[in-house]
Amino acid sequence: MRRIAARLLAFVFALVLAIPTVHAQAGGTSSDPWWKHAVFYEIYPRSFMDSTGDGIGDLNGIASKLDYLHALGVDAIWISPCFPSPQVDFGYDVSDYENIDPKYGTLADFDRLEKLGAEHGVKIILDFVVNHTSDVHPWFIESRSSRNNPKRDWYIWRDGKAKNQPPNNWISTFGGSAWQWDTKTNQYYYHFFYPQQPDLNWRNPVVADAMYGTSQWWYKRGVAGFRLDAVSTLFEDPNLKDNKILPGKNKQGDPNMDNENNDKLPEVHDALKGLRKAADPYGAVLIGETWTDNIAELKKYYGSNHDELQMPMDLMLTKLKFSAPVFREHIAAVNGTGEWPTWVISNHDIVRAWNRYGDGKHNDQIAKDMAAMYLTLRGTPIMYYGEEIGMQNNDPKRKEDVKDPIGRTGWPKEIGRDGERTPMQWDETPNAGFTTGIPWNPIPVTYKTYNVADELKDPNSILNWYKAVLALRHTNEALLDGDYIALNTSDPNVLSYLRKAQNKAVLVVINMSAKPQKAKFDLSQQGFSSGTATTLMSTPKAASTQKLSEIALQPFGVYIGEVTK
Ligand code: GLC
After folding, report:
1. How crowded is residue 15: how many other Cβ atoms within 10 Å of its Cβ?
2. How far is the CA of 129 from the centre of ligand 1 (A)?
């Protein structure tokens, strides 16, 4: 009887969590799931805010910045892994999925962060490393202890092809063979990433269940969802067929290869369905680290019955060059999937957006252009900490300074990812206000001008531009739910589009060239024949009303206006 009552209670609890809620800041209609109109923000916990003075950021540090995040317009933070870990891959080598690394705090700190987050309207998304564990995770320690251990089949163990020869030719994406010889049991184990990150065997249903259970352990603690790490590599060909070797070598000096037998196998989608089934009773959202080569691959991650990821990231955008026609074509293709897009321009694995899209001369303005674009598109954006103040890569200049292991093994062709993971620049005091100790990763000198405190005071700063765009997208009906309609589609320099709601629309016009441009619009076909727009935002400042027949744009200038019926 007691058991039935407990189950009933759990069911009611799950039901309550599953009801879509709308946060005031996130806007939208009540039937929309909350994440559709939310703004997500990735935090690399080592680098956001240090509350203890050890030079490494932590959860209490994040908690101390919730006011900032709320005022910026952030609805959910995705915290990169903060679980116990030997930190070989800075947390992406998890040794206990159900705890917090002491470097970052305790479970009690986590609960406090979550509670304070809720008070600030900021939900918590954790990073679930599903492909592999650390080699010091108790599961792997058991698995490696003997060939007969019940957890042996939790990982991928195989005999070599012959003496001193791994089972096949697969290469780890972090360099060298993907197989590690283990003297204890005289077999190889498989690792797509570092040898300290052995791959879990997702073909073993007990492993899959353990992972589903782990996700639910966090949902019950109040986590709003997960960013799923490295999902494409969950499965390998069971016959371990060799991969095709391609011409040339990669940055680690290994032969290029087509990972057809250990990446993007169709079984990945079964695992994602399982993770989604585990998430649904809690109304949790699943975001995917989905590096795709094309739109069809991206579409697949949503699941044919919308039963996989709600938010597979469009990471293809991060590889495109800053250009009106290039972006126009890509946006059309992503919208063409008919799904709700997830836009990303930066993360902890790639060069910062300021450097990547910038032309070396107008980077600040281009940072505003990028914000004007991806924060006004139909879909959900995921920001990367520091992007909103124009943080720049600070890459190591010498091999001995490199912290990220791939930068040491691949130097100088691969310099690693330290440059995009430097501490957040809060103010112009020593160490940018990030720590009272020695920062784990050096802060670029540019922090003296690119920092939160100074930019808040400057009406023309990148930060105030971001705040204004985010405020607009949270409140403007057309930006929340309106259709995307591309305009002037043969203009080689200016990207223009409408976000159209019932009776009004927002016109976004971005000059992506270094020359002044003029744009003309006739919106009568779209039902807006007044010929004028009311200015909502612009850079540089424009008159409060604009004639649609002649919108003048400065180099890299932006105009955002509202048109009504
Ligand atoms: C993902 C993470 C990256 C990590 C890798 C291995 O790509 O974003 O930082 O090194 O997975 O877990």
Report:
1. 12
2. 8
